[in-house]
Every structure is written in C-alpha cells, then in structure tokens.
Amino acid sequence: MGIFHKKETHESRSSSMSYAMHWKPENLRLVSVISLLAVAVVIITVIGLNSQDKKSISLVIDGQIQPLETRQSLVNEVLDEHSIVLKPEDKVSRSLASTLKDGDRIVIIRAIPVKVIADGTTRTHFTTQNNVEGAIKELGVSLDPADKVTPALTSALKSDLEIRIVRVDKHTVQQQETVPFTIVKTADPELLKGKTKVIQQGSEGLVTHNIEKVYEDGVFVSKHWLGKEVSKAAQPKVIAVGTKKPTAVLSASITRKEGGVDISGLTSKGGVSFKYKKMIKNVTLTAYSAEEDGIGTKTASGTRVQEGRTIAVDKNIVPMGWWVYIEGVGFRRAEDTGGAIKGNKIDVYYDSLKAANQFGRKKGRTVYVIGPTKPELN
C-alpha cells in the first residue's frame, strides 16, 4: 500500500498565514490590558497589606504628646523602636506586652527623685505622685496630726525637692502651787478696844496647774498653760478686833501736897492698862527735830534721840527716864530737856523738821506720868 500525503496547495498555506496575521494585533491588545489589570491588582493588594500593617498612635511623655506611625505590634517594640528607656519607677499606661492598634495612646509618667528627711534618716525616693502627701504615703511613712511637714502636703512635687517631717510630741505635766491664806478682821463689840482674838486659824490652799510641753524631734521647744484646778481651798485666818471702849479711870487716889494736888491711879489707854503716878492736865505740846540748827542727836540724859520715844520735859515735873502717856500722842519717854520747856510743857521729838513744824502747838492735853518702866500690851 502506498502512503497518501495530504496535498498541499498554495491556497491552504496562504489561508493559515493570513489568519495568523489577522489574530496577533488583537491578541496583543488583550494581553496588555490583562497585564495592566494584574499589575494594578498586585499594587492595590500590596498597598492594602501595607496600609493594614501601619498604625498611627500617640506617645505622651510627662504631658508632651508625640504622634507616631509604626508597624510594630507591641508596646515594648514601639518603645525600643524610638529608643525610649524606662526606669523601674516610671509609670506606663499600658502593659509593655500589650498589642497596639491604630489610634492607641501610650502614656508615660517619668519618676522624679525627692529627698525625704524623717526620724533621723534621709531617703531619696523616685516617685510619679503629684504632691508631697502622695510621695509620703507611697513611702509608707505614717504621720500624726501634730507632725510638721515642709513643704505643705498639698505642695506640687519637683525634682530633688526636700521634704522634711518633724515629729511633734505633746506631754501634759502638772505643777502644784501653794496659795497663802488671807486675814479677815471682824469687829467684836464684846472685846475691849485694842485687843484681838483669833477665831479661826488660816490654812494654805493648793492649786494644780496643767501645762503642755511641746517637743520637736525629741527637743523641748515650748510650753503652754492649759488651766488650773483647785486641789485644796485656802482657809482665811479670822481675827476678832475689840471695839468696846475701856473705862478711862478704873480707880484713882488724890493726895494733897504742898503747892498742889497729886492724883494717882489705874487707867487703860490704847488697849494697855497701867498704873500712873500722877496725872497732869492742861499740858502744852510742841515739837522739835535734830534737823534744826543747834539741836544735836544726843539727849540731855545721854541717849540718842528717837522718833516715837523721845520727849523733852521739865525734869521737876517729869523725872528723867520716866515713861508718860500723852493724850493724842501715845507713850513717850522723858529723855531730854530744853531751856523753854518749863512747867506743864512737853517738846515731842521728830526726825523730820517738816514733821515737827506740822505738829505745831497743841494745848490742853492730859499727861499720865507712869514711871521708869513702859507698860506692855495686855
């Protein structure tokens, strides 16, 4: 058998080439369009993927806001990316291992050092608190209401601020004071005038004073008087003072002598009862002083003049050294004489010339001549 070959004709070859030439321009146009679409899809996909991975976040450090763009997913990765180093005391608003998403915020508060001086020690403490009170509480330091804190608890913190705590202790102590008794005098019409009698003995009182002493860090600084309590009331001493008038002459005897009458007897004057040798009436009184020219301080009897005691007399009327009672003046002693002192005249001594001049001249006085011994109070 023979093999039959397809007969090739000029017409068939021509048709194939014609078709190929006819398809190529259209096919190239289609391929170009498809290629462009594919590239666009790839670009959009890449852009989408990139846009989905990139995040905009805010980083706030000590109140300063920094907007950031990052492809990192974790907080610690973002901090490392921007070389942000944290101290152990710094405060971060989010966990370092937490995942970030677009729009998130990371807030960092840097801790600052402050010095706290208390109880004899100084400590440096890093804190993120806002005021002094917060830092003290964070340290666990307890405060009593009386303690002093400088600066004030509400003061804002700043770096290296020195906070001083002064411990204030207050102690109440008691001090006792004795109160002297008073003396009360009361009139007693049954008691002879010039005499006294103790009705009630006085006794001292006792007062307790409450005093608050203040110590700062163990050192005494001040004390305050809080008040007092009467532990024992004082009892006054009560003295009865006699107001009964004494009888002027209790007894008297009259002796007639040559040239006059001598009256002796017993009387009471100024609360003192005494016997007198004679009574002289219508005596004139004057006064003198050592401040006068020619008047010395030594008396005619050899004693030294003394106000309240010395008088100058006529020694023929009153013997030298004898005591007398002068009405309105009191007890005096005859110690001196004078050229003008004759008869019923007596000169009363005063230290001051002014007092002597003020005494002047007094007439019509009665004088009781007692003797060499001064009567004593009954």
TrEMBL record:
Q: Which domain of life is it from?
A: Bacteria
Q: Print the keywords alphabetically.
A: Membrane, Signal, Transmembrane, Transmembrane helix
Q: Which Pfam families match?
A: 3D, DUF348, G5
Report the SUPFAM superfamilies cross-referenced here.
Barwin-like endoglucanases (SSF50685)
Q: Which residues cross the membrane?
A: 28-49
G5 domain location, by residue? 165-245
**What PANTHER family is this protein classified in?**
CELL WALL-BINDING PROTEIN YOCH, RESUSCITATION-PROMOTING FACTOR RPFB
Q: What is this protein called?
A: G5 domain-containing protein
Please name the source species: Paenibacillus segetis
Q: What is the taxonomic lineage of the source species? A: Bacteria, Bacillati, Bacillota, Bacilli, Bacillales
